[in-house]
From TrEMBL:
Residues 8-54 form the Mos1 transposase HTH domain. PANTHER family: HISTONE-LYSINE N-METHYLTRANSFERASE SETMAR, MARINER MOS1 TRANSPOSASE-LIKE PROTEIN. One of its GO terms (cellular component) is nucleus. This is Mos1 transposase HTH domain-containing protein. One of its GO terms (molecular function) is double-stranded DNA binding.
Length: 120
């Protein structure tokens, strides 16, 4: 997945330098890689960076610490209490609520992220 992201960014830069706009770029990439390859909003964001002179397409090093919480820990707590809130999960695991949200999204618990508790 990450390799595809960088590949698509290289293509975006190529089309940008060829004078194509974001919509044309989306169409060209989707012709080859399919409709789910890139979104128009994402391409517009990258074109804005290019216009500002930032032509870096590789992922940048991010600050912040790695999460010490694993999906298995979250699943275990959810299995013991299906009505646990994201705030409670964060407190029990010693991480911010935003970290819990990211893990829940990755696990497919969309309702938990939207409403703050688990419904499924």
């Amino acid at each position: 997945m990450e390799d595809n992201c960088v590949r698509f960014r290289h293509l975006m830069l190529l089309f940008y330098r060829k004078g194509k706009n974001a919509i044309q770029t989306v169409r060209k990439i989707r012709e080859v890689y399919g409709d789910d390859a890139v979104g128009e909003h994402r391409v517009r964001q990258w074109f804005a960076k290019f216009r500002q002179g930032d032509f870096t397409v590789e992922d940048r090093q991010r600050s912040g610490r790695l999460s010490s919480v694993g999906n298995d820990q979250i699943k275990m707590l959810i299995e013991t209490n299906r009505h646990i809130t994201t705030r409670e999960l964060g407190e029990r695991l010693g991480v911010p609520k935003s970290t819990i949200h990211k893990h829940l999204m990755g696990l497919g618990f969309l309702n938990a992220v939207m409403f703050g508790y688990l419904t499924n």
